[in-house]
Structure formats: C-alpha cells, structure tokens
Write a structure and sequence with these properties.
about 210 residues, alpha+beta, four-stranded mixed β-sheet, globular, binds glutathione
Length: about 210
C-alpha cells in the first residue's frame, strides 16, 4: 500500500493527494502534525532530512519534494500532466513553478513566523499572506493559457499546483472574484473527484 506522510492543510501534500487520486491509487495517510513540530522529530527527519511534508512511499521507494513525487506518478501511471511537446511542458512547468517555487515557499509557516518575530509583530501573518498570495495569483491570472483549465483542455501539473494555493488564499481571506480566470478554472477542478477527495476537509486530520 502506498504511504503518504502528510498534513491536512499542507499545500504540497494536497498536490500529491490530487495526483494520487488522478492515478486512481489508494493510499494510507500518516499524519505529521506540523503544529506539534512532528516534522522535526527524529523519525520524520530520517524520512526527510529537510523536515518537510509530504513524503511518499511507493514502489519500494521513499520520495520527497511534491513536484518530484507528482512527476514520478505522472511518468509511471501515465497521467498526462505534462503536454507532449517540449514547449508545452515548459509552459506548464512555468505555471506550476510560479505557484510552487515563488508563491508557496514564502508563505510557508516557518518563513512567515520568522518574519513576524523578527519584525516584533509589526508585520502580521495576515498581511504577509495577503501580500504574497495576491502577488502570486495576480501573475498566475495573467499567465494562464486555457479557459476551463490552466493550460489547454485538460488537467495538468499547473492545475494540481493551483488548487491548494486557491484553498490557502481563501483560508487567509482573499476574495477570489478579483481573479476571474482562476475562478473559472477552479469551478472546473472542483467538479473532478480526485480534486474533491484531496481537499483538506476530506482528509485525515491529526
Ligand atoms: N518544496 C517542497 C515544500 C514542502 C513544504 O513546504 N512543506 C510544508 C507544508 S506545505 C512543511 O512541511 N512545512 C513545515 C515547516 O514549515 O516547518 C515540496 O514541494 O514538497
């Protein structure tokens, strides 16, 4: 059985849950409670020296980094999350990285908490999140290359990265109506069972 070490509200874990669902795989969830710093326990550091979730155990391997895990699933389960052409793959990766490598890392809890502490609380967590998520989604809105999906006519890696960021945006109080293209894509993705099953509200909590 596939094992996913995850945390229900972790965006990176949410991405992998979507990909597992798209692959039609079943998995067991092993919750790593970030609020109790379980990601820094000896057991978890042995699984991932970076002290991050998710960790995915499958096919006799233990994988870290959500995009690496998703690309592994894509290649071994033929999910078609990346287009067939080099330019298509470059464009989908650009959308995916705009979320996963620009927006998400600066909104990671340990980053934000450090900024709040260092500023003696002159920076609030809400203001930081709102600033960086708005910046990230504003760029994404201008970058999308599809109407119902982020790119073309089907689900790609970009959509898998987008939905957890949308969840996070709403969690921090952003009004998504300012992003009409993202809102339309979100409506399509909300109707897909793999996206529904991966949603934090449908997931095992610690
Ligand atoms: N680039 C990594 C990011 C993973 C990551 O940031 N995970 C967060 C949860 S979404 C985490 O474990 N944070 C723990 C912490 O901040 O201490 C990936 O895509 O897997």
């Amino acid at each position: 059985m596939i094992k996913l070490y995850d945390y229900w509200r972790s965006s990176a874990s949410y991405r992998v849950r979507i990909a597992l669902g798209l692959a039609g795989e079943d998995w067991t969830t092993h919750s790593v409670n970030l609020l109790n710093a379980e990601q820094l326990s000896d057991d978890h550091l042995a699984r991932n020296p970076q002290g991050l979730v998710p960790v995915l155990e499958l096919d006799g391997h233990s994988l870290t980094q959500s995009l690496a895990q998703i690309e592994y699933l894509d290649e071994t389960r033929n999910l078609g999350l990346l287009p067939a052409t080099p330019i298509g793959r470059a464009e989908v990766r650009a959308l995916s990285y705009a979320i996963a490598m620009e927006t998400h890392p600066v909104c990671n809890l340990h980053v934000v908490k450090w900024a709040v502490d260092q500023s003696d609380h002159r920076i609030s967590m809400e203001a930081w999140m709102s600033h960086f998520i708005t910046k990230g989604l504003t760029s994404y809105e201008a970058m999308v290359k599809g109407t119902d999906f982020s790119y073309g006519d089907g689900v790609t890696l970009a959509d898998v990265c987008l939905m957890p960021q949308v969840y996070n945006a709403e969690r921090w109080g952003l009004d998504l109506r300012q992003f009409p293209r993202i809102s339309a894509i979100r409506k399509t993705l909300d109707a897909i069972p793999a996206f529904q099953r991966a949603h934090p509200d449908a997931t095992v909590k610690p």
